[in-house]
Structure formats: C-alpha cells, structure tokens
Amino acid sequence: MTADNRTNVHPSTFILIGIPGLEDAHIWISIPFCVAYILALLGNCSLLFTIKTDPSLHQPMYLFLCMLAVADLVVCTTAVPKLLSLFWFHDGEIRLEACLTQVFLIHSCSTMESGFFLAMAFDRYIAICNPLRHSAILTHTVTGEMGLAIVLRGIALLTPHPFLLRWLPYCKTNIISHTYCEFMALIKLACAETTVRRVYSLMVAFLTGGVDFMLIICSYVLILRAVFLLPSKDARLKSLGTCGSHVSMILVSYTPAFFSFLTHRFGHQVAPHVHIFVANIYLLVPPMVNPIIYGVKTKRIRDRFLKLFSSLKAPH
User: Fold this and answer.
1) For residue 148, with 0-12 CB atoms within 10 Å meaning exposed, 13-18 middle and 19 or more buried, which class applies?
2) What does the alpha-carbon distance between residue 253 and residue 46 come to, in Å, rounded to a whole number?
3) Backbone CA torsion sign across 15, 260, 194, 154
4) How many CB atoms lie within 10 A of CB 110?
C-alpha cells in the first residue's frame, strides 16, 4: 500500500517518516542515537554479567536492577534497529504485525521498568526503616515473586493495546509521523471513534506509572523521616548515599517519560519534532545511563567490574 492509497482501511503496512521537519538531519541524528544504543547494550550486558558472576551481589536491590536492565534492553532493541534502518537506508516501511509488536513491547516493558523502580524504592525503605528485618522480609523468593508480579502486570494491562489498534480503520493515511510505532501515534490515524481506547490507555498509564511514582514519593518521605531521626550526621549521610543512585535513575527515566506522555495527549502546542525527539531520548538515554549510574556510584559493582575487566586483560 502506498501513502496515497487511502481506500484500504486496514493497511498491511505503515510508513515511519522519522522526525518530521528534521529529515535532512536524520543521518547526523543517527550518530548519537547509534552510540547511545551501543553503550546501552554494553552497559546493561556488563551489569548483568557482573551481578550474575558475583554471589555477594545477589541481593534484592541488585536483582531488581538486573530485571530493570533486561527491560531496558528489550525497550531500546525493539525500537532502535528499525530507527537506524530508517535514518540510514530510508527504510520506513513496517508491517502491521511488527508495528503492533513494537507497541506492545515498548509499552509493556516501560510499565515493567516503572514497577522495578517501585520495587527498588521498597527495598530502600525496608533497608533504612527496618534494617534488622531486611533479609527476612525481602528473601530471594519474595524478590522473585515481586519481579514476576511486575512482569505479569505489564503483560496483562498492555496486551489489549495491540488488539485495540488491530481492527481500527486507518482511512486517513498509513504514514506515521514518528520513528517507531506508539499507541497514540497510531490511534491518531484512525477514522473511527477512539474515545474508549484513549480512556483505557490513560487509565493504564495512571494505574502503572502514575501510581508507581506516587508510591515512590511516599516511600522516600518515610525514608527521609527515618533518616532525620538518626543520631549522627555520618549515619544520615550514609543512609542517604545508598539512595542516590536510585533517585538519579528515577529522575533520568521519569522526566522524559512524563514529558512525552503529557505532550502526546495534551501538548497540542508543542512542535512535533520536539515531542518525537524527547520520545526517543526516553527510549535511549535511561538504558544507556542507568548502568553507568550504578556502576560509578555503587562501590561493590564498580570493584567487581574492574576485577573482571583486569582479569580479562591479564595475560594467560
């Protein structure tokens, strides 16, 4: 189907056009995107390998970090290879099934990332507010069950998304003004009533990212209250230091996510290229930065990684 053939209301393919208004700069934009993707792959794989090979790191915080790393890898790998193919080879055509798969994987794994941030906040809350019972409360079994619940929540709430989009009539056009398939980008192309679908998407976003963020805020209010009750300044600084990496990751992840979410639904005055650029930053920057944050700020991970790296470099 071509872009001008608007008689087929159920197209078998869509056309991604990238960042509208910046088509001439696609090849240059692809360079930092490609570098960020390679760093995300290397960083997250290194993090997973480092934690896997060191039994002393098999603690709830690091296990949740591994789950987050896997979700990050799925999100960026779902979108970036096609994005680079579009930028480098002008290959914007994507089949409907592949497009809907992108929608499901990106949205469900993003929801899982939010859940893992909440789980990590809960871990910090128990570690600081109830340290003597931390290992008794967050056993490996409980940690695994929490991770499984987060994954199942993402799958259950986001599985309807592809089906909500699958049978919509797309009689306006089959051109998607984006670098990847996204729920709102697709639903804007439909020439049918989409209010129920939009409301469901909004509810899912609130029940996952919105509720998770509010619970994270609540956990840190309780953490701060417990920290300021500690007797010495050194103890307070040490306790807050254990939360620094987690807070940094939340800021890096939630800031572009909220901007992208709000501008897609309510920011009609925001230029399309600004929104799409931020949407791509959301997919690329957190997966790239998260392993760096934990690798640099967490001494045990840093030391373990350096030990592994030096052993690989050492002559046999």
Assistant:
1) exposed
2) 20
3) positive
4) 25
Give CA–CA dist 224/243, Å, rounded.
10
Q: Which amino acid is at 116?
A: F
Q: What is the pLDDT of residue 76?
A: 95
Q: Helix, strand or coil for residue 24?
A: helix
How high is the pLDDT of residue 266? Answer: 66
DSSP secondary structure letter of residue 55: G
Taking every pair of Cα atoms in the chain, the longest distance, rounded to a whole number of angstroms, is: 73
Backbone phi and psi for residue 21, each to the nearest 5 degrees, phi listed first: 90, -15
Query: What's the pLDDT tens digit per position in 179-215?
Result: 999 998 899 899 889 999 999 999 999 999 999 999 9
Whole-number Å distance between alpha carbons of 70 and 93: 27
- Count CA within 13 A, CB hemisphere, residue 284: 24
Structure-token pair, residue 133:
């019972």
Cβ atoms within 10 Å, residue 30: 19
pLDDT digits (tens, 9 = 90+) for 22-35: 888 899 999 999 99
**Distance between start and end Cα atoms, the chain:** 58
pTM of the predicted model as reported, rounded to 2 decimal places? 0.91
Please give the DSSP secondary-structure letter assigned to residue 57. Answer: G
Whole-angstrom CA distances from 9 to 60, 189, 192, 217, 316 are 49, 10, 11, 45, 64
> Cα 180 from chain centroid?
14
Rounded Cα distance between 246 and 175, Å, is 39
In sequence order, the 6+-apart residues with CB closer than 8 A to the CB of 62 are 51, 301
